[in-house]
Amino acid sequence: MLTKINHIGVAVKSIDEALPFYRDQLGMAFKGSEEVLEQKVKVAMLQVGESKIELLEPTSPESPVAKFLEKNGPGIHHLAYEVADIVAAIAHLKKEGARMIDETPRNGAHGTLIAFVHPKSSNGVLTELCQAGH
Ligand code: CMX
Hints:
Elements: E1 2-11, H1 15-25, E2 29-36, E3 41-48, E4 51-58, H2 64-72, E5 75-83, H3 86-95, E6 106-107, E7 113-117, E8 127-131
Parallel strand pairs: 1-4, 5-8
Antiparallel strand pairs: 1-5, 2-3, 3-4, 6-7, 7-8
């Protein structure tokens, strides 16, 4: 069902402030940034081999990332796995007893479809399913 780790999401207060560490000091390829309105975040993507690091900056105090930063400060926010068929993956997880935050896919960055599993049902790791955009 899962094909690879697509990205690791990292919550930051400011992409502008966090970017130099990843792009200049670690030397990752910066693939651009965009706002994901549905999730109330600005997202910057950095490529490492076939994997990505996603920097997440809240665009509203109601953003899930704003709440996370308030409680924990900056740090790893979620782990995203790529799936070929997100609707089938959600159905499988539900059948196996996982608690889905999203029972139908939402729009993610770069035309992807995404759905989250609740961290209370995944041993404390906010888990994202991600189907590549077309
Ligand atoms: N990782 C692990 N645990 C987390 C977490 C995270 N990122 N975010 C929240 N939690 C935990 C909290 O610590 C809390 O645990 P305790 O009850 O033990 O204290 C519990 O989950 C409930 O958290 P909360 O602070 O009360 O927050 P909410 O219930 O309001 O929301 C969550 C939590 C995960 C349901 C919400 O953040 C959500 O729906 N997330 C999915 C969407 C998202 O994160 N979008 C941003 C990224 C978008 C993108 O990548 O494009």
